[in-house]
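Readers of this paper often ask what the protein records in our data store actually look like. This encoding replaces a full spatial description with a residue-level series of whole-number codes. For reference, a complete record is included directly beneath this paragraph.
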Amino acid sequence: MEGKGMVCVTGGTGFVASWLIMRLLEQGYTVRTTVRSKPTEGKRGIGYLTDLPGARERLQIFHADLDRPDSFNEAIEGCTGVFHVAHPTGFTKKEPEEMVIKRATEGTIGILQACLNSKTAKRVVYLHPFHPLKGIQGFKIGSLSSKKLLECEFKFNYGLGDMFDGAIQSYKEKDFF
């Protein structure tokens, strides 16, 4: 199968990101993903990612952390698309909401800067459990729909397109964007 190009998925150990990685590999993409902890340091292994069909040939795993936004540069360099799914932790540590939002905002801006610096990233898909960029003057959220992913030749099975539409609608109802 001829490759479709290289994309980056941040937060690769998360639920949505790991499903996205699986689908991208199925479609023939080379995937670079980021994980917060080095595989030997984490609470759980990453075998569920490295054992995916096509992972041995087309999955590269990078260590990156939203607290160090420049740590995403290497993973994004050379990619034509970036799926930003990573989000900061801290909810269990009773970290103040303002601090979580600050970390998410700075991390997201750092990832967007890495995309600009790469000169290869043509599209960024932003999926987040909350929207830290809401309220930043001049930041405009584009129209969101799984149809945009389909336009990029992504094929969804198991109702994934409906899942994204449902998540987007839920976020809109909660005024996250």
Notes: The mean pLDDT is 76. Strands lie at 6-9, 30-35, 59-63, 81-84, 123-126. The radius of gyration is 16 Å. Helices lie at 15-26, 47-50, 55-58, 73-76, 97-118, 146-151, 160-173.
